[in-house]
Amino acid sequence: MSSPDVTWGCGGERPLRRDAERNRRRILEAAREVFAERGLGVTMDDIADHADVGVGTVYRRFPEKEALIEALFEERVEELVSLAQEAMAEDDPWDALVGFLERGQALQASNRGLKELVLSTGYGRERVACMRDRMAPLVHGLVERAQASGQLRPDIVGTDLPLIQVMLGGIVDFTRDVDPDTWRRMLAIIVDGLRAREPLTPLEAPALDPSQVEQAMHGWKPLRC
Amino acid sequence: MSSPDVTWGCGGERPLRRDAERNRRRILEAAREVFAERGLGVTMDDIADHADVGVGTVYRRFPEKEALIEALFEERVEELVSLAQEAMAEDDPWDALVGFLERGQALQASNRGLKELVLSTGYGRERVACMRDRMAPLVHGLVERAQASGQLRPDIVGTDLPLIQVMLGGIVDFTRDVDPDTWRRMLAIIVDGLRAREPLTPLEAPALDPSQVEQAMHGWKPLRC
DNA sequence: CGAAAACGGAGAGCCGAGCTCCGGTTCGTG
DNA sequence: CACGAACCGGAGCTCGGCTCTCCGTTTTCG
User: Fold this and answer.
1) pLDDT one-digit tens code per residue, A182-205
2) Facing A167 at nearest CB: one of B167, B222, B223
3) Are B93 and B59 in contact (CB under 8 A)?
4) C-alpha–C-alpha distance, residues A97 and B57, integer Å
5) How many C-beta atoms surround the C-beta of residue A45 within 10 A?
6) Given pLDDT bands bounded at 50, 70 and 90, which one contains residue B1?
7) What angle do CA A117, A122, A124 make, to 5 degrees?
8) What does the alpha-carbon distance between residue B158 and residue B93 come to, in Å, rounded to a whole number?
9) What is the pLDDT of residue A163?
């Protein structure tokens, strides 16, 4: 909106001095790593240290964290959307759904920052909200197709999928430094619970509607943020 | 160990003055409510305000939060153990298991502080650790019985239950001020996923052993704590 | 009534995170 | 190579939030 050649160094106004440009790259790289490992809650000092650079340098280049985060996660967030698109392209509706759950979670498990960005609200809100709007119909489609083919239990609804992500996200956090793959175990259980077959334990509680999910994300602080 | 008649006012050394005793009760009551509603992260000021009492008074009675928490949650934590015991007494092994999951989660859903106490480590560690030691064999028994009766899938293990609690706990947090019953929906899915029936999605990741669960709880900070 | 006990809550001390500022360093141009 | 501009570094200031103390005031009770 008003930022200089700060976010896209490639074709900017006047090129940065060599050392400045070097540091800019370092910071971006460090931020990528640190966000992925430790989540969005890391301090600017953390990033600076990791980049072997002074805090001042970080602030000079990225006056606020928001910009840094947004620049970094754009691509990752897109990845999530295209995951859903690819899933819709899959032949078998059940495999599509399960594959989407599995790959989506794997993505989030590999990047703590991404997980926090997607599940919470408060950082890239604009971009993430818009991403969710694009996801919703795809997810809805995945669910409907799998139900039409008789493989997914009929009482499931699109908004249940984010909830499943939240559950698995919790497991990922919980078991992170003990066994980072335990979420797959839980996913397998959940997947079997999603199959259409008797007897079905009735889902006593009503499904959430999209606005409720939205609202839940607002009030939500996964760890620190 | 060295505390005065602070935690058990009933039969203590010399009785508190009337106003002091009244305030002590108020504080305990307020703490109970506030912990249940907002979790263990609340400040002493929060408690004092809620009790209509000055902070000083709270500190005079309960020099550290730990004591306050421990005094309050003793009973609640016992409740969890007896839940498992009652479950073991149930006739049908499957109903026992499912009922235990359901009631255990309901207890934690109704009391945010309890949930944090049980799932994390850092507050009543002594008491909670000992509680877990008592739970472990019971839970193990519940699992084995349900498997022996052919109702529970055979690849489940005792340590999977705490993980299920973690997942549901995440949902409880997430949906707290949107629809506090959504966790039941997810539980139903999970329960169906636990049934022994073909096809079973294989649990690719290995189960955690108890020490890993313990370790996971250590590194774990649900919200703030 | 008066001493002892208890109260209240302002504020001191602390901590962690965000951010600034300026003496020193590096660049690159004349 | 020399010099000004651009940039760096990181000590330290600010700020908000929390824990805990201290003492003038109030309450209890013999």
Assistant:
1) 999 999 999 999 999 989 999 999
2) B167
3) no
4) 57
5) 11
6) very low
7) 55
8) 14
9) 98
Residue A199: cis peptide before it, omega within 30 degrees of 0 = yes
Q: Kindly report the number of other CB atoms within 10 A of residue B49's CB atom.
A: 15
pLDDT, one tens digit per residue, over B170-184 is: 999 999 989 999 999
The one-letter amino acid code at A95 reads: D
Residue B195 backbone dihedrals phi, psi, to 5 degrees = -65, 145
Q: Given a cut of 50, is residue B8 above it in pLDDT?
A: no
Q: In Å, what is the separation between the CA of B45 and the C1' of C1?
A: 36
pLDDT band at B162 (very low <50, low <70, confident <90, very high): very high
Q: Would an 8 Å CB–CB cutoff place B220 in contact with chain A?
A: yes
- DSSP notation for B33-82: HHHHHH-TT--HHHHHHHHTS-HHHHHHH-SSHHHHHHHHHHHHHHHHHH
Q: How far is the CA of B135 from the C1' of C21 (A)?
A: 58
Specify burial of residue A49 (Cβ count, 10 A radius: 0-12, 13-18, 19+).
middle
Nearest partner of A69 among A139, A1, A130, A128, judged by Cα = A128
Q: Distance between alpha carbon B68 and the CA centroid of its chain, in Å?
A: 16
Q: Which residues of B176-212 are buried (b: 16+ CB within 10 A; e: fewer)?
A: bebbeebbbbbbbbbbbbbbbeeeebebebebbeeeb
DSSP B202: P
Q: How many CB atoms lie within 10 A of CB B36?
A: 16
Tokens of A187: 């996913």
If you ran DSSP here, which 8-state letter would residue A199 be given? S
SS3 B195: strand
8 A C-beta contact, residue A127 and residue A92: no
d(CA A111, CA A115): 6
Yes or no, beta carbons of A205 and B191 under 8 Å apart: no
Within chain B, residue ranges assigned H as helices are 18-38, 44-51, 55-61, 65-89, 93-110, 112-119, 125-148, 160-175, 182-194, 210-218
C-alpha radius of gyration, chain B, whole number: 20
Contact (CB<8Å) A163/B169: no
Joined tokens for residue A102: 């599995």
Task: Say if residues A141 and A88 touch (Cβ distance below 8 Å).
Answer: yes
Closest C-alpha to B81, from B127, B116, B32, B121: B127
pTM above 0.85, yes or no: yes
**Residue A150 DSSP symbol:** T
Q: Does A171 touch chain B (CB under 8 A)?
A: yes
Question: Which token pair is B37?
Answer: 């509603």
Q: What CA–CA distance (Å, rounded) separates B72 from A12?
A: 61
